[in-house]
Amino acid sequence: MSDTDEIRRRRVLFRAQHRGTKETDLMVGGFVARHIASFSESELTQVEAVMELLDVDLADWLSGRREIPVEVESVMLRRMVDDIAQGAR
User: Fold this and answer.
1) Residues 53-85: pLDDT tens digits?
2) What's the domain count of the chain?
3) For residue range 4-58, what is the model confidence (pLDDT) as tens digits?
4) I need a labelling partner for 4 at 20 to 30 A (CA). Which of 43, 66, 67, 76 fits?
5) Domain that holds residue 66
6) Neighbouring C-beta atoms of residue 58, cutoff 10 Å
């Protein structure tokens, strides 16, 4: 792993754990912390795209309070939802 890759991973993890609301900090940050070491470059880009979404929406989608709208659904967002649901069991 290059220094540049390591720096990017640390930035993604920090950003995931400091979203702005405690609920999304825990859900998004927890998911990223569990998987950051295994993410490919493409997956890191996908995580960064998910983190561009609003906290309020992310919290609702990740917790299952609302369905993910088709226009924002992605493989990574669905992966987060599934991972978080597994942890709740």
Assistant:
1) 999 999 999 999 999 999 999 999 999 999 998
2) 1
3) 899 999 999 999 999 989 999 999 999 999 999 999 999 999 999 999 999 999 9
4) 76
5) 3-88
6) 24
The identity of residue 23, as a single letter, is E
> Dihedral of CA 79/68/18/44: which sign?
positive
**1-27 burial: b if 16+ Cβ within 10 Å, else e:** eeeeeeebbeebbeebeebeeebbbeb
Q: Give the separation between CA 57 and CA 20, rounded to whole angstroms.
A: 13
CB 29 within 8 A of CB 51: no
